[in-house]
Structure formats: structure tokens, C-alpha cells
UniProtKB/TrEMBL annotation:
Interacts with PTPRG. GO terms for molecular function: cell-cell adhesion mediator activity. It comes from Hucho hucho (huchen). It is a lipid-anchor; GPI-anchor. GO terms for cellular component: axon; plasma membrane; side of membrane. GO terms for biological process: axon guidance; brain development. The keyword Glycoprotein applies. The lineage of its organism: Eukaryota, Metazoa, Chordata, Craniata, Vertebrata. Residues 1-18 form the signal peptide. This is Contactin 3a, tandem duplicate 1.
Length: 1044
């Protein structure tokens, strides 16, 4: 016998196994629900959920507004769910239903209303200024942008964060969005902005501001109310709906608004009137709410009335039954009468009146009309009105014919709708060809007239006709059923492992009816892959293959991939999982434990291993003194992947550290963890001595000691400083001084008794508040030397030009041991000025060149020696006068020509001005120009006394000569800046030699033996002064260079 708990477990297991193995019809586990979707969402897709369980697994279809959906580029099935791509508010909004079917039958989900809300922006065009008088009324237009869905209007005044409050003077219509101000006051001047909010998407847009200004010419007088906002004269309202009536008036004084019913009945308690009295709301409309309503606007100048009738609307089909309830309260209790079209209602067998209840059975067309319930007692009577419309028509397929052609796969199920418009409802029958169909195991005519055919075979193809009948007639509609072979995935995608950076291909190949064109779509983790926006994905293959290539795989690509294949008759799918191996994720929960002056204990938790186990951890540290993150030594030296703690060693004392941990596996190095909180190691005695201790120099009587300061990260604690010790060489007693500045790098000891260039032993140590650290090695440092006591002798000068002077002197003999000459200072100043204003030039040799001087000017020159202690006395000043400047004008009228292999160059003589030196000669240089670049490797200079020169040169490969002129004077040599011209040439056969003539009147002649007749003609033509370019066509030109 089983114990109770054993029996319970057995029953549970039996139930689970039974549920898993028992074949049964579909049962919804998830149904669609009413939804509002914003247009232009991030992925521009809408998902409507539907899921059912069953054995065998159900397949799905969807309806929208009663019509079956054909799967296309906009509609896709994803495991029962309906995916809408690129939704459009007009095309895709409606009432959706999900249909799940297996061999046992079909179920239909509840209806789900799908809406698409949007709100576009206002135009940015500035709005016109509104000019009004004080006391006048004004209406500001909102002009909302295109939108869909319920919207709410508000106004903002002068950009304030809160909305404009409505009151008896100001009203915002929720039908138009306009702002109405009954009477303008001075405080109303400013900018008004219309604000529109979509209540479905919460999107809000703002108009451009409308400026309102006051006219100063007059003030508006009083006038009676004018109702500017009013409701319709007749409004049909259905049962249970809510109706809002708007009413607002303009006037001076500000009108008051009241509401009333014309039949004298009080307004029901459920009615709502807003705080400005401008809106009357009637929720949950019932027949007794019908009647005529009045809005009364009144001020001291008069009143105005707007009225409208609310009619309870009811539409009944022919032969249906109707029941209306009319209730009224009063004392004594009222009695009821019913009127039809203003006359007492004639009672008959079909029409029954009991108190305030009216019942009409088997309604016909004659029952149409206006009905009124009259409730009265001795105090009066009240009415409630309603309209009855009876619809009667023969069946009509004009708006909803049977689908002309339907494609369905063999073995599938088809649902053929028959929805004629008919009143009363038509009876439906179906026939195939000329034979009427009856219900069978595969053929079912549903209650609504829909024909369902399951387990379809090829023989089911053909023409099907729906026949609809009612008392007013018969009509039919025909469609054709075409049976196709079902689509099958023959090569499905397979689950695969991959490493970050690799590329893979997921196959998806189908077979099926050759007349159907399959469309492939891929989904990643339930979302459609957009190949235009995702660089990692590419669909390859044509025809019956739609393989997916995933390039440069990243960790984010792990997940489920579904290949969805659509044809016009069916959809099939296959799924696979991609597992991506990558470097580990960042370790987590990093904590710094015990800290010493050189160690820190760390612990952490592992992060995701990304399908490849962690092999090692490494630790990095950062200080205010480091450049980025640096690896640090740990114990153990290599931290294995199964260990989550380590000790960092060899840290510097009294330094702020941050740490992070990095995991590695066989794929690579992962991302670092979050950095730890900043910690500071404990202080310790400094253990680093100053380096590069040296010294020397300074003034007489000084001992200068220098060293490299210890960096802050090596000072090991607070109150860091230096201990400087020194003693004369050969003595035993150290003299010490303490420098409390951690940045100190120099110490000067002053004592006039110290002989120049004396030797001292020196060392520098360190300390902090933890104690004294090591000292540097002992080095020998010399004390300062004394300045030179003698000036240089035998100073003399030589004038080179108008701007340059050379100075010479005898060097000082260095026989004394107290100073060492390292250079000289040359002072130069104009006669009449002070030596303190002199220009100074420092040199190491006993000679100097002074340049940049003025021509024909007297200068004073003196020289003094210099060593590390400073400069010595100056030599006596000597006088020197610079030469006159060279001619300022270049040679003019330059001419050149080529005759018998010789180039002749001539120019006019240059005449010097009165303050310039005379011309003694000229300098001519010849420079080759090859490929339009100056080449000075073949340069020839000629210094001439005449103004004419001739050259004979070898022109190889038509190289071009460029002549520049310079001239020689008695004082200096100066170069011209105006060459007569240059020409370029390439030596290839039949290529042009071309160049621009830059000198006026220059003519180039070449011996006729060098080129043929045609070339000579071209050369001679260049001699014309008005030509700007030269062209020479020649194969080769040869000539020899000889000096003249």
C-alpha cells in the first residue's frame, strides 16, 4: 500500500506524463490584448502575442477586422506571435484575433484592439502679433499639427513652466485647441504658446509663440454675450458612451455660463461641469439622459442661449427583439405613457408596456420611428426620447465577397469566410461546383458561416460558392482553392560554438512547390534582423537557400537564431543556438583588505567566463604618479583561475593606490574590474638616497652642492627633507645642515675664508617623520673660483664691410690656480653712447665677428674674460669705422644671345650714389636648371671688370641655362634678385622644350647646325618681343664648354 505522500507524487508524475503524451486540442496560454503602439519606434516593429498548447502542436492564423491576414513583408508569424514590420496607422490599426488549430479543432482568441498613435511637430514659422483693445475679446488659434489618437490642449503664457489656468474669463476648447479670452485685461499682454500632448504616447509639442499687445487708441465698451464655442443642434448618442458639451461666450462684462434642460427636469447627479462652467460631461449615457440641453451666457448687458438635442440612438435588425427601460422619480409616484412619432403607442401582441418598460418582439420595418417615454404626476410631466432604426436588407456580397483565390499547402487547413451584409442575418450554405457540402470529419460549416477544411489534399482544389439566404432574398459569392505542396526546411541551422572574432554560417535550405517563391527572414533572440543596419549579419545564398553569415562574432551575438521561411501559402521555421566563447568578463566585488607599508591584500569574485574557463588573474595598480595602470607583483606570482585572492607586494610606502583585477582565459584577456576604492600604504623610513650629487661654481667664498631630489612617491612619509654633510678633503669632522623642503635640490654654503677651488667631501642624506634614511656616496666638490683679475691685451679690429667688423685680442695666460677662463665677452657701442648700452657677444676663441652694423659709423670695442665666477675687467676701448654701403641699384638692360656655340651676356654699368662705395667689378654665376629645380652642382663664377661676358658650354639633353648677375664693389659683394629668365626641357624624343620668357627684349639664338630647319624657325620666332613662350622640338643638342 502506498503512503499518502508517495501516492501524491505518483499522481503528480502520472498527470505530468499524461499531459505530455495525451493528444488534445489547442488551449491558449497567452492571448492578445488591447495595445497602443507609437509609430516610428526604435526598431519600427510591433509584436502581438499569442501562444497555445496542444498535441500535436497548433499552427496559427490571424484576423484583423474580421479578415484573415496574408503573411507578406509587413506581417510575419514568429512561433504564433504576429510581427508587424514598418507599421502604418491607417493600414495596420484595427481589431486583431489569433486562431490556433490542430487536428482536434480550432479556437479563436479574444479580440484585441491595436492602435497607433503619433503627433507631428508644429511649423516653426513665426506667428503674427495679435493687437487688441483692453476690454475686447480675443480668440487665439492653436492649429494643431497632424496627429492620431486622443490629444489634450493646453496653453503656456510667457514661457512659464505651468499651464495657463482656465476660469470664467479664459477657456481652452478641447475640440479645436483654441484659447478664448472673454475680456482682455492689461495683464494678458505677452506671448502665448499652444501645447499639444498625445495622451497615448505622452509626446508633447509646442507651437511658436503668438504675441498679444494692447492698442492704446481706445478701450472697448460693454456689450452683451456672444457664444463663440457651442455644440451641435442634434447629437445621436449610444448607450453607455460619454458625451461632452462645450460652451463659452465672449463679452464685457465677463459672461456667466449656466446649464439646464428645456423639459424642466433637473440635471442628473452623475453629470460633471468643469470649474469654468464651459464643459458639461454626461458619463454612461442612458435613454433617460436624452433631451434638449441649453447653455445660457449672461452679463449685465444681456444674455444669449445655445441649445442642442441629445438623442438616444438604437439600431435593431429585422425580426430581432427590443426592450427599453424608462425610470422616473417623484411624489406621488409617476405613471408612464409611451408615444411613437408624437402619437400614443398602439399596443398589439408584439408590443408590451409594463410601467416604464417597453418590449417589442419580432421587430419589422414598420416599427422604425421616434419613441418617447412620458412620466407624469399631478405636479407635471417629463419626457425621454429615443430613435429606433430597423435595418432590413437582402444578402449582399458587394463589400465582403468570398476571396477570389486562396492558396493552401497540402495537409494544411483553410478557412473560407462568408460575411454578406444582410438583415436579418442570412442562413449560409456552401457548395463545391454544383454539389452542396455537409459537415464531415474534414468539412465544417461554422456558426458564422465560415467553411473550414482540414487535412487538405490535392483533390480538394476547385471552386467553392457561399450561398446566403434571408426573407428578403438570396445571394452567392465564389472563390477558387488552389492546393500547393508544403514548404519544408531540408537543411536547418545547427547549434554551434564560436570564438570572438570568428565568422560562421548558419544554413537554412528549403524544398517545396516550385511555383512558390520562398522569402527568408532571420530572427535573433526574437527580433527581426535588419540587414541594412547590422554590419555583422549578412544573408547569403539564392533561390531555395537563405543562409545567415555572422561576421566578426562578438559576445553579444550569443543567443537563439530562427530561420523563418514564408511563401504565399505557408510559413516554416527552424531554430539554432549560437554559443560565443570570448575573453572573460570583468571580475566583480573587488575588496582591499589588510594594508602595510609595502603590501595590500585583495579579494574578488569571478565574473562571467564567456564559455571558456578563467586560467589566470593579474592585478594592476594606479597611483597619482603613474602613467595609467601598471602591472604589479603578487603572491602567488601567478594567480590561478580558481583563486580569488592575492597579496600585492613591493608597493611604495605612504602612496595612494587604486587596484583592479583582469581575468584571462584561452581566448584572451578580459575587461578589467571596477577599480577599488583608493587606499594609502603605511609610512616607513625612506630607503632611497639622492642621486647625482655634484657641485661647484658660484661666487667667491661659496661651496655649491647639488643633487637630484627624491620623487614624492619614494619619500615614504610626511615631513620629508634632506641632510647635507660636507668637510674639507683630508679632515674628519662633518659639517651638517638640514633642509626641510622635499623639493630642495641645491645648497650653498658661504664663508669668505674658503680658498678658491678648494676640495670638499660631500654627501646628502634623507629623512621623514619615521626616521633618517640612507645617504648618498661621498663625492669631491670644488669651492667657487674667483673672477679674472686681468683684461685681455692687444685688442685690434679690421673692417670687412659696411655691416661687419672682425675683432682680435691676445688670450689670457691661465697660470693662476684660482680661476679658469671659459670664454670672452665682446662689447660694442656707437661713439657718443654709454658702455652700459653696448651690444654683447660671447665667444670662446680670441676672435669675434660683429655683424648687423651701420655703414660709415664709428664704434667703440672692448673685451673682458669670463669664468664660472663671473666676468673680469674690460680692456681699454678701441675705435673702428665701418665702410660705405654697396650700390643699391642692380645692373640694368641685361641682354643675352647665343651665337656659334657661344652665349653672350651684357648689361649697363652701375653708378654708385654719393654715400655708396664705387663699383670695381661684376660677378656672373651660371646655374643649370633641370626639371624646373635649381641645381648648383655645376656652378661657374666669373669676376669681371667689364659689362660683357661670353661662355661656351656643352648642352646635354637640352638642359637649360639660367644666368644670374651679381656685381663686385670695393666694399662687399651683393647679388641681384632679377634673373632674365629660365627654361625647362626633357630629353625624351619628340618632347617639347618649353618655358616662359621673363626678361623684356631677350632673344635666344642657336646655331643652325644643332637643329633642323623647322626647329630653327621656331627658335627665331621666339626672338619676337611680343611672344611669351618658347617651344623647341629637337632630338639632341650638343655643345662644348670652354672658358673665355
Amino acid at each position: 500500500m502506498l503512503l499518502p505522500w508517495e501516492l501524491l507524487i505518483l499522481l503528480s508524475l502520472t498527470g505530468c506524463l499524461a499531459e505530455r503524451n495525451t493528444r488534445h486540442g489547442p488551449v491558449f496560454t497567452q492571448e492578445p490584448s488591447d495595445s497602443i503602439f507609437p509609430l516610428r519606434s526604435e526598431d519600427n516593429k510591433v509584436f502581438i502575442n499569442c501562444k497555445a498548447k496542444g498535441n500535436p502542436v497548433p499552427h496559427y492564423k490571424w484576423k484583423v477586422d474580421g479578415r484573415y491576414i496574408d503573411m507578406d513583408l509587413n506581417y510575419n508569424l514568429v512561433e504564433g506571435n504576429l510581427l508587424i514590420n514598418n507599421p502604418h496607422a491607417t493600414h495596420h490599426g484595427g481589431v486583431y484575433q489569433c486562431i490556433a488549430t490542430n487536428v482536434f479543432g480550432t479556437i479563436i482568441s479574444r479580440e484585441a484592439k491595436v492602435q497607433f498613435a503619433y503627433l507631428q511637430n508644429f511649423s516653426r514659422k513665426p506667428r503674427n502679433t495679435v493687437s487688441v483693445r483692453e476690454g475686447q475679446a480675443v480668440v487665439l488659434l492653436c492649429g494643431p499639427p497632424p496627429h492620431n489618437g486622443e490629444i489634450k490642449y493646453s496653453w503656456v503664457f510667457n514661457g512659464r513652466p505651468s499651464f495657463l489656468l482656465q476660469d470664467t474669463r479664459r477657456f481652452v476648447s478641447q475640440r479645436t485647441g483654441n484659447l478664448y479670452i472673454a475680456k482682455v485685461e492689461a495683464s494678458d499682454v505677452g506671448n502665448y504658446t499652444c501645447v499639444v500632448r498625445n495622451m497615448m504616447t505622452n509626446a508633447t509639442v509646442y507651437s511658436s509663440p503668438t504675441p498679444v499687445v494692447l492698442r492704446r487708441d481706445a478701450v472697448m465698451g460693454e456689450y452683451e454675450p456672444k457664444i463663440e464655442v457651442q455644440f451641435s443642434e442634434t447629437l445621436h448618442v449610444t448607450k453607455g458612451s460619454s458625451v461632452k458639451l462645450e460652451c463659452f461666450a465672449l463679452g464685457n462684462p465677463v459672461p456667466s455660463i449656466t446649464w439646464r434642460r428645456t423639459d424642466g427636469n433637473p440635471l442628473p447627479g452623475k453629470m460633471k461641469i468643469n470649474h469654468s462652467n464651459g464643459v458639461l460631461e454626461i458619463p454612461y449615457f442612458r435613454p433617460e439622459d436624452a433631451g434638449v440641453y441649453e447653455c445660457v451666457a449672461e452679463n449685465s448687458r444681456g444674455k444669449n442661449v445655445a441649445k442642442g438635442q441629445l438623442i438616444f440612438q438604437s439600431m435593431i435588425t429585422h425580426n430581432a427583439n427590443l426592450q427599453w427601460e424608462c425610470r422616473a422619480s417623484g411624489k406621488p409616484k409617476p405613471v408612464y405613457r409611451w408615444l411613437k412619432n408624437g402619437e400614443p403607442l398602439v399596443l398589439e401582441d408584439r408590443i408590451l408596456v409594463e410601467g416604464g418598460r417597453l418590449a417589442v418582439s419580432r421587430i419589422n420595418l414598420l416599427d422604425s420611428g421616434m419613441y418617447q417615454c412620458l412620466a407624469e404626476n399631478e405636479h407635471g410631466a417629463i419626457y425621454a426620447s429615443a430613435e429606433l432604426k430597423v435595418v432590413a436588407s437582402s444578402p449582399d456580397f458587394s463589400n465582403s465577397p468570398v476571396k477570389k483565390s486562396m492558396l493552401i499547402q497540402r495537409g494544411g487547413e483553410v478557412i473560407m469566410e462568408c460575411r454578406p451584409h444582410a438583415s436579418p442575418r442570412a442562413s449560409i450554405s456552401w457548395r463545391r461546383g454544383g454539389e452542396f457540402l455537409k459537415d464531415s470529419t474534414r468539412w465544417t460549416i461554422m456558426e458564422d458561416g465560415t467553411l473550414r477544411i482540414s487535412n487538405i489534399s490535392e483533390s480538394d482544389g476547385g471552386r467553392y460558392t457561399c450561398v446566403a439566404r434571408n426573407p428578403f432574398g438570396t445571394s452567392s459569392s465564389t472563390g477558387t482553392l488552389v492546393v500547393k505542396e508544403p514548404t519544408k526546411i531540408t537543411v536547418p541551422p545547427l547549434s554551434v560554438d564560436a570564438t570572438v572574432g570568428e565568422s560562421i554560417v548558419l544554413p537554412c535550405e528549403v524544398c517545396g512547390d516550385s511555383s512558390l517563391d520562398p522569402t527568408f527572414k532571420w530572427f535573433f533572440n526574437g527580433k527581426l534582423i535588419d540587414f541594412n543596419r547590422q554590419d555583422h549579419f549578412e544573408m547569403i545564398g539564392v533561390g531555395s537557400a537563405g543562409d545567415l553569415m555572422v561576421r566578426n562574432i562578438q559576445l553579444k551575438h550569443s543567443g537563439k537564431y530562427v530561420c523563418m521561411v514564408h511563401t504565399v501559402v505557408d510559413s516554416v521555421s527552424a531554430a539554432a543556438h549560437l554559443i560565443v566563447r570570448g575573453p572573460p568578463g570583468a571580475p566583480e566585488g573587488l575588496i582591499v583588505g589588510e594594508i602595510t607599508d609595502s603590501t595590500a591584500q585583495l579579494s574578488w569574485e569571478s565574473g562571467p567566463d564567456n564559455h571558456s574557463p578563467v586560467t589566470t588573474y593579474s592585478i594592476q595598480a594606479r597611483t597619482p604618479f603613474s602613467i595609467g595602470w601598471q602591472a604589479v607583483r603578487t603572491v602567488p606570482d601567478s594567480v590561478p583561475g580558481q583563486m580569488f585572492h592575492a597579496t600585492v607586494i613591493e608597493l611604495n610606502p605612504w602612496v595612494d593606490y587604486e587596484f583592479r583585477v583582469v581575468a584571462s582565459n584561452n581566448v584572451g584577456v578580459g575587461e578589467p574590474s571596477m577599480q577599488s576604492k583608493q587606499i594609502r600604504t603605511k609610512a616607513a623610513v625612506p630607503d632611497v638616497a639622492p642621486g647625482n650629487v655634484s657641485g661647484g661654481g658660484g661666487r667667491r667664498g661659496e661651496l655649491v652642492i647639488q643633487w637630484e631630489p627624491i620623487p614624492e612617491e619614494l619619500q615614504s612619509g610626511e615631513e620629508f627633507g634632506y641632510v647635507v654633510a660636507f668637510r674639507p678633503l683630508g679632515t674628519s669632522t662633518w659639517k651638517q645642515t638640514v633642509l626641510a623642503s622635499p623639493d630642495a635640490s641645491r645648497y650653498t654654503f658661504r664663508n669668505d675664508s674658503i680658498p678658491p677651488l678648494s676640495q670638499f667631501e660631500v654627501k646628502v642624506g634623507v629623512y621623514n617623520n619615521e626616521g633618517e634614511g640612507p645617504s648618498s656616496h661621498v663625492v669631491v666638490v670644488y669651492s667657487a673660483e674667483e673672477e679674472p683679475s686681468e683684461p685681455p691685451s692687444r685688442v685690434w679690429t679690421r673692417t670687412l664691410s659696411a655691416s661687419e667688423i672682425e675683432v682680435y685680442w691676445e688670450p689670457i695666460t691661465q697660470t693662476a690656480s684660482s680661476w679658469k677662463i671659459i670664454g670672452y665677452e665682446v662689447l660694442c657701442w656707437e661713439e657718443g653712447m654709454q658702455e652700459s648700452d653696448a651690444e654683447m657677444v660671447r665667444v670662446t676663441d680670441p676672435a669675434a665677428l660683429l655683424s648687423g652694423l651701420k655703414g660709415s659709423t664709428v664704434y667703440l670695442i672692448s673685451v673682458r674674460a669670463q669664468n664660472s665666477a663671473g666676468a673680469g675687467p674690460s680692456s681699454p676701448a678701441v675705435n673702428v669705422t665701418t665702410k660705405k654701403p654697396p650700390p643699391s641699384q642692380p645692373p640694368g638692360n641685361i641682354e643675352w644671345n647665343l651665337t656659334n656655340s657661344k652665349i653672350f651676356l651684357s648689361w649697363e654699368h652701375v653708378k654708385a650714389m654719393g654715400n655708396e662705395s664705387e663699383v670695381t667689378g661684376y660677378k656672373v654665376s651660371v646655374v643649370s636648371v633641370i626639371e624646373e629645380s635649381l641645381k648648383t652642382s655645376e656652378q661657374m663664377l666669373a669676376y669681371l671688370n667689364s659689362s660683357r661676358v661670353a661662355f661656351q658650354r656643352d648642352i646635354r639633353d637640352c638642359n637649360i641655362l639660367c644666368f644670374t648677375e651679381t656685381w663686385l664693389t670695393r666694399d662687399t659683394l651683393s647679388e641681384s634678385v632679377q634673373p632674365p629668365g629660365f627654361f625647362t626641357h626633357r630629353a625624351d624624343r619628340n618632347k617639347h622644350l618649353s618655358g616662359k620668357k621673363k626678361g623684356g627684349g631677350v632673344c635666344l639664338m642657336i646655331n643652325e647646325s644643332w637643329c633642323d630647319h623647322n626647329n630653327i624657325q621656331e627658335l627665331k620666332s621666339f626672338c619676337s618681343p611680343d611672344l611669351e613662350f618658347l617651344t623647341i622640338k629637337c632630338d639632341r643638342i650638343i655643345y662644348q664648354e670652354n672658358s673665355l
